[in-house]
Amino acid sequence: MTRQYCLALELQGLSEWALYVAHFVSDGQARAAMVQRLLLGHSSQGVNVALEVKPHLQGIPEAWLWRARAFRSEEAGDWPGAVHCWLRVGGAEDRAVAIISGYLLGPALMGHASAPFQRGAVEAILLAPMTQPAEWLLSVLEELAPAMAHRDVLWAELGREALGFLRHWSQAGQARSNPASVVRLYHRSEKLRKGGLGLPW
């Protein structure tokens, strides 16, 4: 009966009330599945998943709330916000690295890049000293370094590669990079974005 009432509230667009009622489902496994589905399915449709104490959010693990906020940020194209939320979820380092590589690293590099004016192929890409967005990316990847270490999967390999690139850039101030290295980083980032996140754009 409780599940049916919860579903009825959901169908009427009363998602926050549905979340509240879901707390009273007697079966623990079913209750957890229902609450997570409501959080994820309606995070962009009016359910307030802010971390303030509210009746419909009481008793929900904080990681579930951060997960819902992460997906909400992704839907809004707020990639820095999504990374911040995934870091709070715990155990979602792969998705955080995929977002950094797929959506944030490229714009950060191109925002600092210039090429010597000359005819023919570009021999080097010059990167101006890091600004705050690039420094933030470096700090996040430094935080993720332990999770990326000794893992032979694409997200960890690419995360280590990006971290090494950013460390060199930070230490050098104005960095001079081989275009082939930058293109390779871009290509692998695109592969991770499409394969790891399942997002084509």
Topology (elements, then pairings):
Layout: H1 2-11, H2 15-22, H3 28-41, H4 62-75, H5 79-89, H6 93-112, E1 113-114, E2 125-127, H7 132-148, H8 154-172, E3 175-177, H9 179-197
Antiparallel strand pairs: 1-2, 2-3
Helix pairs in contact: 1-2, 2-3, 4-5, 5-6, 6-7, 6-8, 6-9, 7-8, 8-9
Protein described:
The protein is mostly helical and 201 residues long. The protein has two domains: 2-78, no CATH class; 92-197, no CATH class. Helices cover 66% and strands 4% of the residues. It has helices at 2-11, 15-22, 28-41, 62-75, 79-89, 93-112, 132-148, 154-172, 179-197; strands at 113-114, 125-127, 175-177. The chain has a three-stranded antiparallel beta sheet. Helix 1 packs antiparallel against helix 2, helix 6 (93-112) runs antiparallel to helix 7 and helix 8 (154-172) runs antiparallel to helix 9. It is elongated and about 70 Å long. It starts with a helix and ends with a helix. The model is unreliable at 44-49 (pLDDT under 50).
